[in-house]
Amino acid sequence: MTQTAGHMSSEMQQCIQECLTCHSVCLTTVQYCLQMGGRHAEARHITTLLDCAEICQTSANFMLRGSELHTRTCGVCAEICERCAQDCDQFGDDAQMRACAEECRRCADSCRRMAGMAA
Amino acid sequence: MTQTAGHMSSEMQQCIQECLTCHSVCLTTVQYCLQMGGRHAEARHITTLLDCAEICQTSANFMLRGSELHTRTCGVCAEICERCAQDCDQFGDDAQMRACAEECRRCADSCRRMAGMAA
Amino acid sequence: MTQTAGHMSSEMQQCIQECLTCHSVCLTTVQYCLQMGGRHAEARHITTLLDCAEICQTSANFMLRGSELHTRTCGVCAEICERCAQDCDQFGDDAQMRACAEECRRCADSCRRMAGMAA
Amino acid sequence: MTQTAGHMSSEMQQCIQECLTCHSVCLTTVQYCLQMGGRHAEARHITTLLDCAEICQTSANFMLRGSELHTRTCGVCAEICERCAQDCDQFGDDAQMRACAEECRRCADSCRRMAGMAA
After folding, report:
1. Cβ–Cβ of A80/B69 closer than 8 Å?
2. Using the beta-carbon criterion (under 8 Å), do C62 and D72 form an inter-chain contact?
3. Gene3D superfamilies, from UniProt (chains A, B, C, D) (predicted)?
4. Which of C87, C77, C82, C86 shows the shortest CA–CA distance to C105?
């Protein structure tokens, strides 16, 4: 994206990338959870993963549009990523869920910085 | 939506409807503004309309998924709708812009109630 | 939407409305299915409902933007709605699934007309 | 995405990546065009860029969900990317527009392969 987004701070470029990656990981994890069934497929858990995927997409789009309001969407994205990470933590040593939790936390950190929020 | 969303409060059903209407009006207004050109088509104004359309869609989707986190997306949606309404106010007696501002304010009011925020 | 979309044919306005309704019904049905569990919550079925919800949203947005390319998105939307309806048919006399199948077929019909496809 | 999408073919992983990149480039190009004004900001051109960004996002999401129906969305995505590339070609030696056209063609090629379409 260097050429086409040269005016963006590297911090914003990184945040966009985290949001897109977190979006992808959450959608992939939804499929994994539905195939696992049982506790993995509980409505509340699938909903949180879908919530996280969607707000990451929205948050990335605000930054890609160069919107001044991106601090607001990054703020709510950080909160929802953090919640999703906590949800994924409950599955202990399941590798997919741990990878998802880690990506959610990386994205939450990055969004929190963009939103100018204290950790 | 009565049959398929019978468990929802009527306040939430109304908020979903406002978000979907506001999303539609903002996207239609983008076209109007691009065709008008000049001040209507300034980057900052088009971006705000696209921001408002997208956060309304996201906010509606959180409610349709029955997500507990809808208060967060409704909160940020209220803020962005309010900003978009102020932007549209600047065009004085342009009927399309006034209709858009009015819908943004109705949606902001409804989202604010869902978010439990004071006006 | 009368005031803000006065230039649209009434057939297109109706198709936008069907797409928005079908999107809402599919998302609501995802929640219902996840809460039912069992066959309702099979990965393939949930995926089809999410697919249908998303392409309906995309198809509505193309029309709202006044895009010439809406015939293409309406075409693929009609196919996916039809597939989703068939999936929902398998649940016999389950009222929610039947309502979802009916809305998917209404939306498929409307999109097929917009796409200029034969039934 | 290696860990979380290990079951995907490398061709699909590449197509997802092209769709996400093309989506990002198109949204960034919308901002560029709105700031340039004049012919860059014509309604039809901005609409095509927004169309392309949205169908790329939708197409990526179908693949990320593991949907069988991704061949359909990839097919229409290839068509719309190709159209967007042709639109961008009209701006001659403008570096941003050329970069956008190139990414749209890369994405169209990749989507065409996923859709099993002949070039």
Report:
1. yes
2. no
3. 1.20.1270.360
4. C82
For residue C35, the chain B residue with the least C-alpha distance is B66
CB-closest option in A3, A31, A60 to D66: A31
Residue among C44, C54, C80 whose CB faces D72 most closely: C80
Residue D14 counted as domain residue = yes
* pLDDT 10s digits, D45-77: 999 999 999 999 999 999 999 999 999 999 999
- Pairwise CB contact (< 8 Å): D61 & C69: no
Domain region containing C67: 10-115
How many whole angstroms separate alpha carbon C25 and alpha carbon C27? 6
Closest-CA distance of chain A to residue D74, Å: 17
Does residue C96 sit within a domain? yes
Domain contains B4? no
Give the nearest chain A residue to C38 (CA atoms).
A37
The token duo for C101 is 């199948």
The tokens for A68 are 């001044």
Buried b (16+ CB within 10 A) or exposed e, B72-102: bbbbbbbbbbbbbbebbeebeebebbebbbe
Model ipTM value? 0.92
State the CATH number of the domain containing residue A40: 1.20.1270.360
The total domain count for chain B is 1
pTM of the model: 0.94
Q: What percent of chain B has pLDDT over 70?
A: 92
State the burial class of residue D42 (Cβ atoms within 10 Å of its Cβ: 0-12, 13-18, 19+): middle
Tell if the CB–CB gap between D28 and A96 is shorter than 8 Å.
no
DSSP letter at C34 equals H
Chains interfacing with C (3 or more CB pairs < 8 Å)? A, B, D
Q: Are the Cβ atoms of A24 and D1 closer than 8 angstroms?
A: yes
pLDDT given at position A22: 98
Q: Which residue, among D2, D108, D4, D101, has the nearest Cα to D59 in the 3D structure?
A: D108
Asked whether B81 and B53 are in contact (CB, 8 A), the reply is: no
User: What's the rounded Cα separation, in Å, for the pair A93 and A100?
Assistant: 12
Is residue B91 in some structural domain?
Answer: yes
